[in-house]
């Protein structure tokens, strides 16, 4: 199985471990970066196009495909899903199609699709300026959510409690999205829909992260993870637990909502990362991305539900139906958290040897390196990495994660961010 992985602009070394997982499953991974470093991947299976324009990416991919004969093209990057759809279409390989990819990338287009397709969703409005945002606040009421249309990783997503705060956060977000890495990593020359801000009505209940599969007329929930973070004014998505505490009846409702939303987005054969939040006892769709979730969610899926979203990527990219069923949790509890520091420049991150070797850990990934600048809300949402642990219960797994995270030492220096 020969797969082409693609990023228009390389996101450091973040996806190397994912590509290694693909190869562990038997795939031969070739990597094409539009703009990237020379030593990112083994030289015989790595090329840099020298441009992040979609025409140049397609040309480079087409030349390589003629030489190698790829079975599929994929990305793990939120900023790469539209580019991959364009490349797949150009090469005649399996893909979701440009329209579905664009709808699944741009939050405004996604919301409009949910509305047209009858998937339960929060009220929303595109707000080109602060006056429009304030008008939406008057109509929706407070609290409300402010978010980018082309965001990722909760960057510049704010919970707003009143009009004064909305004025301040709108200015922060409007400025921040212009230099947001997730927008800058998109391929040039693609129509992505409006690049701006949305106001959404607030959903007041518990939240869940789902690894799923759309295949023809069915949508399968492979893994369901509960968000257990105490919510503030920003969304770090920093603590999660699985298996889910949802009842069978609630899971059935969630499956119906995810299916309606996926089909509304035009997704019929795709690996999905869905986020659902309850409001007044009913599930509503927050978003569906056409890639696996990050931060160790794939490991949580395998351990707590016997579902492998990375194997699903291999199959779907090559047009093969994955061997999956509906959600079937195991008895192993998992807890995962983001490793969060203060803002500043990273001088060092030290993980004690006994922490790294702990049998409780199923996932430990340090993504920040010396010299990196960490931005924290309202200026950005950078983190140090991820930690996941197993246990006999939520309290046991979460206690282990907290204890081990506290022993990871970070030295930071002040810097204006």
From TrEMBL:
A GO molecular function annotation here is:
metal ion binding
Domain annotation ATP-grasp: ranges: 111-318
Q: Which domain of life is it from?
A: Bacteria
Pfam families found in the cross-reference section: ATP-grasp_4 (PF13535), ATPgrasp_N (PF18130), LAL_C2 (PF18603)
PROSITE patterns from the UniProt entry: ATP_GRASP
Which SUPFAM superfamilies does the record match to this protein?
Answer: Glutathione synthetase ATP-binding domain-like
UniProt keywords (A-Z) are: ATP-binding, Ligase, Nucleotide-binding
Nuclease among the record's keywords?
A: no
Q: What is this protein called?
A: ATP-grasp domain-containing protein
Species of origin: Streptomyces purpureus
